[in-house]
Amino acid sequence: MSQFDDRERAFEAKFARDQEVQFRITARRNRLLGEWAAERMGLTPEETDAYAKAVVQADFEEAGDEDVIRKLAGDLTAASIEISDAEIREALNQKTAEARRQFIDKEN
User: Fold this and answer.
1) How far is the C-alpha of 77 from the C-alpha of 90, rounded, in Å?
2) Is the distance from CB of 64 to CB of 90 less than 8 angstroms?
3) Residue 108's pLDDT is what?
4) With b meaning 16 or more CB within 10 Å and e meaning fewer, what string describes 66-103?
5) pLDDT tens for each residue of 30-50
């Protein structure tokens, strides 16, 4: 029974680590997305930093990416920047890959 318990604990620990890594990558991706959108809106460096943090916070509203996409679309539209959901989703995919690369580089 001890061997089974050890295996179960190992799987639980791996799951917890995997979830933490995914959380960090998603938070980094959201920050990168915020910086991308801020650049398009022509924000100052201070405003960019605050906006990127706001995008990270927006992701806590609901599960999935829709809350972030909605925030970016609304803010960009309010800044008179025409952008489609498809463009935002493409940026989201690019920033996901970039965040993953940055995380892996940081770990090595």
Assistant:
1) 17
2) no
3) 67
4) ebbbebbbebbeeeeeebeeeebeebbeebbebbeeeb
5) 999 999 999 999 999 999 999
Residue with tokens 């990270």, as numbered in its chain:
56
CA 28 – CA 37 distance, rounded (Å): 14
User: Looking at residue 91, what is its pLDDT?
Assistant: 96
The whole-angstrom separation of Cα 97 and Cα 99 is 6
Q: Which domains does the chain have, with CATH numbers?
A: 2-107 (1.10.790.20)
In the chain the beta strands, taken as DSSP E runs, fall at none
Query: Can you give the pLDDT at residue 1?
Result: 61
DSSP-derived secondary structure letter, 2: H
DSSP category for residue 108 = -
- Sole residue written with tokens 């770990």: 107
Q: Which residues of the chain have pLDDT under 70?
A: 1, 108
